[in-house]
Amino acid sequence: MHESEDYQGLSEYPYGDLAAPHSVRLLNLRPGGETASEIVCELIEENLDTTKVEYEALSWSWGTDPWDETIRIHHKGVDYFVKAPLSLVSALRALRSRSAIRTLWIDAICINQQHSDEKNKQVPMMNKIYESATSVCIWLGEGDDDSKMALNFIKHEVLKLQGFDELCDNEAASPKWRAMLNLMERPWFSRRWVVQEIALANDAMIYCGKETIPWKDFADAVQLFVEVETATHRLSEVMKKDPKFYHVPGWFEYVSALGASLLVDATGTLFRVSKDKAREPLLSLEYLVSSLSVFEAVQPQDTIYALLAIAKDTAPEAVIRGATQSSVTPARAQLNAWAYRYRMRKPYKVDYKQRLFDIYKEFILFSIRQSDETRALDIICRPWAPAPEKKGSKKGKRKVRAEPKIIKEAEETRKMPSWIPRLSGAAYAMFPHPNGEMRVGRQNADPLVGLPSLSQRNYSAAGTRKVDLSTLRFKTRSTYYSMYVSGFILDRVARVEVASQGGNIPEEWVVEVGWEDEDDDPPQEFWRTLVADRGRHGRNPPTYYARACRESILKGLQSGSLNTSELINNGRCSVVAEFFRRVQAVIWNRSLMRTENDHLGIVRKDVQEGDLICILYGCSVPVILRRKRKTIADLEKEKKEDEEEFEKMKEVATIRIQRGYRESVERRARLREIRLARERQEAIQREEEQLADTEGSLPANQEESQPVPEAKSLRSMNGAGKSKPKPPKPRPKPPSMLSPRLKPKNEPAHPQAPRERRNTPKPEAEPSHPADEPRRTGTDRTGTDRTGTDRTGTDLSDDAFPLEDDPKHFYYELIGECYVHGMMDGEAIKFQNDYDIKAQTFELR
């Protein structure tokens, strides 16, 4: 029990250890009136594997409220207390029955928040907890007039399909649509864990203050809302006419990017349900993490962990192990099917104590191994990773749900590498509106790689070249992390124009392509580059895009740039609006560039002249890499770290070889004993058979006159009628050093090392790579020091250091993906073959 101040003479509730691996605590909420101030509960323990118990699971938003409220816990005749935030206490008051006990599972109370080991075991069970609950209670928070209007609007108007079209054109309904939008923007809809909680729920009910609505009804209303606005933008048009809403254009422009919209869409596509109501996951972990980036995770690890239970290719390790063990319970048929479904998915370890970088790296490696090998590296171009919390930051100081606290290293000196794409690069975010409300809006262009869907593939810049798993590896250094990938240098950035602001087209872009006469058709490379040579959903661009470009751009450049939002919201042509929506999705916060080989393209706004345009094998789009030379100090440090790592590997290998040798000798000795025992037994049987034959062949008169010789047993002799077994060979001494194949190239083999160890396990070392070999600092024949200096100690300039030089002297920063016109569909591979461009390994940092 943790020490704390007494509450009215009560002590803090003493959490004990759970009795079984799949045991959970459930909360019996005692009845009371709505205005009763005190919440009284009882905690009970149940095993979900052996007991059929009815309970409801609470899904709520922890928020930032301090844990100052108190809940009374009655346990074995003694009253205790636990602390809770006001939002949870409000939820319990709303859910409390007036006359009966209500059994709930609530993460904040049913899991010991002070016990990290219990959290690590209970968090992977979240899916089973929500799946086993009779219903999930969704608490959106306290109600107000706005939420009451929204819920009544949904129940009595939106779901009445016969009048839906008229409702969409009714200006009087504008306040109701806005109230519904506000409801969809409540904090609960931005939580990442709610995706799993709702997807696994057998039934769900929304509670907002005193108002309730079934989740299914709410989901249908959201889908109708999103569909009509996305397809026709009718609701935004109606809102513009209402003076109360400031004549703001595009009020619902990005409603499809809201958490509520994505949640409703996701829960409808996550599973295929069979006749026996078994759920079969349909989406990969990579797809879920990439597509649900709008959902926030208080702890960065939950970006991945919160989606494990609903992914088709993995599940929490504890869940798979538990599913296998559960197949021996009495309800064999149902649980066997459940266990089979989980055994088909690869286990994924949940460990909140692990370093954040390692969690991210393992997810990237998992995604690469599970993906189509020709686009496996797309994961390093798609924004999904929240940045780690900075020391001293107020963010994350609030208490979070049942996930354990991060145990960070004492000294976190490494920064996140460029090959872990930041979530800050996501297309959408929440912004404050002029009237004080928060609204979702675009902050960046859409990723060119798109989502990892089997049915859609935007580009194939590397053709059919697969990710090179022989060179793909990761390296952890003292101050940075490296990823090694294969590919080749396609081109170099020659010029970068001013970046697009808010999706506008700068005048400099038009000048760059030499389009001056508005009567002329726009250069094909220009309009195709503006839309990245694709239309909606990754299809080929419609031919009328060129006409829409010609009729709009030159006429709208009087102010120095073309305001695409103005043409979308106030233009009278839906075709032009569609064209510029696609343009915004490509150029927002990006720049136009020209390559040294005269290709036009779109890049991130922080790209610089001289940056390299590269093709990575297994990546569907070109990428921008910034080459940086390692300093002499860097090379010396790497050499020292490599030597230290090799020594550690050698020690580990030696121990394992010695252990394997001992086990091999002991195994041979046991087999020898078994063989000798079997030979003795066989000899005894032969002797007994010979004795029986001798007795049966003697004459009757001799049987009485001649005594039968006493049988000699091998139990008391060393092999009667058989030569004595040879004594075992003397046991050789175990090796004290590595076998020759594990030694450095220049180190001779130990003379006493055994010549053959077929049963000796190999050390678990990382694959060798030139970048891992100890650096040599001697001079070559040209008089140049191998670390990049001449004999006088002068550092060589970049111009004097061509790209073909030793790649160990360079590393690369991944700036991001890019569009290069004419090089997006396999043409780059032909270019490589035509000009005999050699492949190389890039060390990304």
Descriptive overview:
This protein is an alpha+beta fold. Among the domains are: 11-133, no CATH class; 317-344, no CATH class; 473-630 and 833-844, no CATH class. The protein has 24 helices and 29 strands. Strands 1-6-5-3-2-7-4-8-9-10 form a ten-stranded mixed sheet, sandwiched between helices. Strands 17, 18, 21, 22, 23, 24, 27, 28 and 29 form a nine-stranded antiparallel sheet that branches. Strand 15 and strand 16 (438-442) form a beta hairpin. Helix 5 packs across helix 7 and helix 20 (564-570) packs antiparallel against helix 21. The longest helix is centred in the last third of the chain and has 66 residues, at 632-697. The chain is flat, with a radius of gyration of 35 Å. Residues 1-5, 324-336, 394-412, 702-726 and 729-804 have low confidence and may be disordered.
Concise account of the structure shown:
The protein has 845 residues and is an alpha+beta fold. Strand 5 (69-75) and strand 6 (78-84) form a beta hairpin. Helix 14 runs antiparallel to helix 15 (332-343).
Order of the strands making up the biggest sheet: 1-6-5-3-2-7-4-8-9-10
Number of helices: 24
**Residues in helices, as a percent range:** 25-40%
Uncertain runs are 1-5, 324-336, 394-412, 702-726, 729-804
Q: Work out the strand percent.
A: 15-25%
Q: What does the oligomeric state look like here?
A: single chain
What order do the helices and strands come in, and which of them pair?
Blueprint: E1 11-12, E2 23-29, E3 40-47, E4 56-60, E5 69-75, E6 78-84, H1 86-95, E7 102-105, H2 107-110, H3 116-122, H4 126-132, E8 135-141, H5 145-158, H6 164-168, H7 174-184, H8 193-199, E9 204-208, E10 211-214, H9 215-232, H10 234-241, H11 259-269, E11 271-273, E12 279-281, H12 285-291, H13 302-305, E13 314-316, H14 317-325, H15 332-343, E14 346-348, H16 356-370, E15 428-432, E16 438-442, E17 473-476, E18 481-499, E19 505-506, H17 507-512, H18 524-530, H19 544-552, E20 561-562, H20 564-570, H21 574-587, E21 590-595, E22 600-604, E23 612-616, E24 623-629, H22 632-697, H23 700-705, E25 784-785, E26 789-790, E27 810-817, E28 819-820, H24 827-834, E29 840-844
Parallel strand pairs: 1-6, 3-5, 4-7, 4-8, 8-9, 13-14
Antiparallel strand pairs: 2-3, 2-7, 5-6, 9-10, 11-12, 15-16, 17-18, 18-21, 18-23, 18-29, 19-20, 21-22, 22-28, 23-24, 24-27, 25-26
